[in-house]
Design brief:
mainly alpha
């Protein structure tokens, strides 16, 4: 896997480490980004993609939640 170097403000790195519960700023940023991307995919799968042309309000749920 390719590696990318990103420069962050020290306070931002510390906040990311505290939020993710890690002791390494690189691990913290990676965990937060992975979570952010996974959350976006979950939201998209529930609401649909804007490119599909069908508004989310017009869709009927496929399964009941709860």
């Amino acid at each position: 896997m390719a590696q990318v170097t990103v420069t962050l403000d020290a306070n931002l790195a510390i906040d990311a480490m505290l939020l993710s519960g890690t002791k390494n700023p690189q691990d913290a940023v990676e965990l937060i980004l992975r979570d952010y991307l996974a959350r976006g995919r979950r939201t998209e799968s529930r609401t649909g993609d804007a490119a599909d042309g069908q508004p989310a309000a017009d869709r009927r749920p496929t399964a009941q939640e709860g």
